[in-house]
Amino acid sequence: MDKVPILRRLPRRMVVCLHFTCAILGAGALFTLYLESETTITSTVPNVLTTEKVASESSRNPRFSSSKQDAKIVPPGWSWTSSYIIPSTNGTKNSDSLTSKNSSVPLASRHYTAFHDKTKYIYVNSASTTSTYRPARLTYGVVKKRPTPTPIPDTCQSSSMTDVKLILLWTPFFGFWGYFPQEGFQQCSRCRNCQVTTDRSKLEESDAVIFHARDMSLSDLPPVRYPHQRWIYYCLESPPYSDFPGLLHMRNMFNWTMTYRSDSDIVVQYGMVVKTHPRKIDMQTLLWSFRNKSKSVVWMSSHCPTDGGRDSYVKELRKYIDVDVYGTCGTLICPPESTGKCLQEFSDKYKFFLAFENTICKDYITEKFFRTLKYNIIPVLFGGAKYDKFAPPASYIDALSFKSPKHLAFFLSGVGKDFKLYSSYFRWKKNYSVVLSSQKECDLCALLHRTDLKPSSYYDIRKWWVGESNCRTWKPKR
């Protein structure tokens, strides 16, 4: 060993090399962990953030005056302040930017909850512009860059069922649960990728929750409100027959409205008139029908008296022209299940049909008008709608455009004696046709897929629904 000193130093050098190698490997491992931590640091904050603070009635914010407000003001009758900011785990307020892990759209910087009656509202102070955005896992710091998702086109033809929107029916429709049939989406020319459920256990995953006005109750509201949802006020009855005290307590509860009103988010009509290719009108058949009509005016109704005063109008009208009245409002009978058959008999016998609405309210038109257009009988209308917006030109006679029922009676008598004038009310059929259906399923599904809608809510749904409906009652002039 003395002659070969290098062999004596060999074990010491091997130990040094081993330590050096371990140090390099350890440094590499630490550097790798550092890069991963810089890429994404997953937060332990839960999806549903809550606070124990509850707003009081005295904290109502008086600065809101319009009927629609930003969605951040969501619980009925309550307003938000900075005291409802949820503290973060490190003792500071959550003012850090929160970002969705699977979206390029930033989430809100603060989360809030509040209680109204039995419903807990979970909201953020700045929402995504995506109308039906559902928050995913929340992450702090730098997020892995992902490609921006392609917006869903208006036609929704490229959408797949993997992007399905779930619609929860929270209430029935006069006790009937099939008012939003799933098969209705198959008839849509645009969006079809929506599903309907009545299972309340699917509340959290639902994109829309529908409440029928006549079946709503303050004691039966969802226990939790989620930020991604759109709560929808659904009503086809006019305000005099759908208003109830509970609406006063439903401020900022509804995001969208689905009614017959033309200023609704989703307009639901009992029928529509569509333009078609020009067709030839059989004037000989119309003339033969005109000559064989033995009576003048017919009215069919089973609701008397009414808020609009139509029964009083008909009573006054009958002083100047013959009016046969079918249903419980009169003495003649047409079975409820035989409406179509009765209308066909009316068109063979009568020249005019009183398609009178039970209320005189803005945009209120029911099936009475649209179904009458399908027959060779002239509809005489009584209501608050601007009918030229919904009906073909020269297809009806508006009773309320006359000074009195007496003036209307004289006009009907003149039209009923002049075939040239009478036939002019059917010329619209050359270019138009009537469709007795609603597109509510298709319109709702398309709206749920829109990505350009900002969150909004109706601050005072009763003011919009009742106060702005311009309802009135007809009364005879003395």
From TrEMBL:
InterPro entries according to UniProt: Glyco_tran_10_C, Glyco_tran_10_N, Glyco_trans_10, GT10-like_C_sf
Domain Fucosyltransferase N-terminal: 164-271
Compartment(s): Golgi apparatus, Golgi stack membrane
UniProt KW Transmembrane helix keyword: yes
Root EC class: transferase
Membrane topology designation: Single-pass type II membrane protein
Keywords tagged on the record: Glycoprotein, Glycosyltransferase, Golgi apparatus, Membrane, Signal-anchor, Transferase, Transmembrane, Transmembrane helix
Domain Fucosyltransferase C-terminal positions: 291-464
Listed EC numbers: 2.4.1.-
Keyword tRNA-binding: no
Any one cellular-component term (Gene Ontology): Golgi cisterna membrane
Pfam families: Glyco_tran_10_N, Glyco_transf_10
Protein name (Swiss-Prot/TrEMBL): Fucosyltransferase
Species per Swiss-Prot/TrEMBL record: Argiope bruennichi (Wasp spider)
Source species taxonomy: Eukaryota, Metazoa, Ecdysozoa, Arthropoda, Chelicerata
